[in-house]
Amino acid sequence: MGQLSLKQITKTFGTFEVVKDVSLDVHEGEFMVFVGPSGCGKSTLLRMIAGLEHTTDGDIVIDGKRVNDLAPVDRGIAMVFQSYALYPHMSVFENIAFPLRVEGAPAAEIKSKVEAAAQILHLENRLDQRPGNLSGGQRQRVAIGRAIVREPEIFLFDEPLSNLDAALRADMRIELTRLHKQLGATMIYVTHDQIEAMTMANRIVVLNAGDIAQVGAPLELYHKPQNTFVAGFIGNPRMNFLPVTCTEVTGTGVTVDFNGQRLHVEVEAPASLRSHLPGAPLTLGVRPEHITLGGGNASMTVTPSVMEYLGQNTIGYAPLPGGEETFCFVLPGTQKVPADTPIDVTFSTADCHLFDSDGRALPR
Ligand code: ATP
């Protein structure tokens, strides 16, 4: 149990449509992450699933039952917030026990469930303490404990790691993945952090201004983004987008003109593109980590204005003609590339993506 279906969900605040006709199935036991930039509607979507916000239109179905009109407590879900929402005057034990006390559960059941949750979360030795004496990571684990004791069909997480420092976030990512394996429950997790999405999710939903831009497994989104939005959002630093002109469509792909070089990219060309030939403007996408100093079958000269030497890799940023876009490249290790000096970089068309003028990917 723990299957969720969203059927044509819409949410408007006044005249502002923040979630637009979203349909989605989350499978039983799946770790599903909603990711997207600030304001894309991911928290609103989660809050509608939780019952903290009404839908303007559409149905929310949990395990075959429409739950739109059910109170949050009757939906079989438990939600963990960024703010922890712990009671400072209560012990860790009482904080975790709180939902069971509200339900009027017997003392023995409360004790065994709280202790079991504390063990899963490595909080056994903290049960007598107050939240004020705990680290941020421990406080978040208490909040998760309070969700676990309710034994929900579906866990909902709203940016639960946002208040933690980078090292603790990395630890908690591993903890949450372990917890998901151990409990086998359906988990829906909202974040704007693509590393959290990529590392924890079975599948990711990328949201853009209230619309689903793509749903897929993490590496599917990285290797086969369906549009420039997903291509730019998944991957860090973001994919470079270079304007090119289509010169030929063949049985094996599309040939483009890039700064006078003819590059053949193996993608499927839609019939609509053929009718626009020749000269259709396209966008060539190449990830910074696919740029090399020689060896590729395409090259360009850039003048990096900023170089970052991180030890594990070397990152360069160079303005592109036109001035607004910045070209980024990531070279492995420490490389002696000075700033403000022209340099020839190369890449391979096998690593490239092509997008039409509406930003849709030509399938690879
Ligand atoms: P963030 O990562 O910044 O939380 P988000 O993707 O979770 O962003 P939401 O919190 O879902 O975005 O908000 C989506 C849009 O809806 C935003 O523009 C927000 O200002 C607006 N919004 C959210 N709640 C309300 C509300 N109660 N009344 C009016 N507008 C709202």
UniProtKB/TrEMBL annotation:
PROSITE patterns xrefs: ABC_TRANSPORTER_1 (PS00211), ABC_TRANSPORTER_2 (PS50893)
Domain of life from the UniProt record: Bacteria
UniProt keywords, alphabetically: ATP-binding, Cell inner membrane, Cell membrane, Membrane, Nucleotide-binding, Transport
UniProt keyword Transcription present: no
SMART domains: AAA (SM00382)
Annotated Gene Ontology cellular component terms: ATP-binding cassette (ABC) transporter complex, substrate-binding subunit-containing; maltose transport complex
Domain ABC transporter positions: 4-234
GO MF, one example: ABC-type maltose transporter activity
InterPro entries for the chain: AAA+_ATPase, ABC_transporter-like_ATP-bd, ABC_transporter-like_CS, ABC_transpr_MalK-like, ABC_transpr_MalK/UgpC-like, Mo/tungstate-bd_C_term_dom, NA-bd_OB-fold, OB_MalK-like
Methyltransferase recorded as keyword: no
Family as reported in the entry's similarity comment: Belongs to the ABC transporter superfamily.
Protein name: sn-glycerol-3-phosphate ABC transporter ATP-binding protein UgpC
Species of provenance: Pseudoroseicyclus tamaricis
Taxonomy of the source species: Bacteria, Pseudomonadati, Pseudomonadota, Alphaproteobacteria, Rhodobacterales
